[in-house]
Please model this.
Amino acid sequence: MQQVSNPFQAMKDIVTKPNRVFATINEVDNWSWIPFLFIAATGAIPIYLYFNFVDFAWYNELMVQSVAAELSPAEQSAVRNAMADQAQSLWAGVFGSVLVVVISNAILALYFNIMTRSDEECVQGYTDWYGFAWWISLPTVVCSLISIVVVVLAQDNQLSPVSLAPTSLAFIFAIDTSSQWSSLLQSIRLESVWVMYLTAVGLSQWTKFSANKNYTIAVAPYLTIWIIWALIIIF
Model:
């Protein structure tokens, strides 16, 4: 199989030739910094734009009603006073978006490292799987780019924070942030299917597992989290 010549070509080819990309990154070092920086930057930009655009007084009240609607007026006032100001919220959101993907991909890499130990021919270690996690996360860039467009084109600065997840079920079905299902449905995004597919493709290049096992490993963590989350809400 012909290899990809550089990490930028790999980012382009992962859309149409993912098998070749994963076969290549299995043989090279230090390419995963490129998707990491790209994902971090594109994830932070819409948050920065959002907090520079949104009516922050309205946003604050929305957050108070989302997390403290059932509390007394005095308790709601205490929550309101404890909330960060606009600049603090902006930078907390920007850095928090990077931290979240760093931690979530670290956990995902641990999962892959554990699940592939039964393959005696799989020689990849934890750091290899951590790099792998950034490549399979590239579809999240699509969501970030769409959210940038949504914020830039918005006419009303009372813009729901759900707009930062325009590929999520919460945005698609206009689920209000006050709904107990909002957070779960924001986490279920259309590009998640693409991420699962890339995971299975990558596993097929890095392991000797069957296609069924590769897809099971790819899908299991997402379905498990979503099902447990839904059961917690229901019960």
Summary: The radius of gyration is 20 Å. The chain has one domain: 18-234. Residues 18-234 form one domain. The CA atoms of residues 26 and 98 lie 25 Å apart.
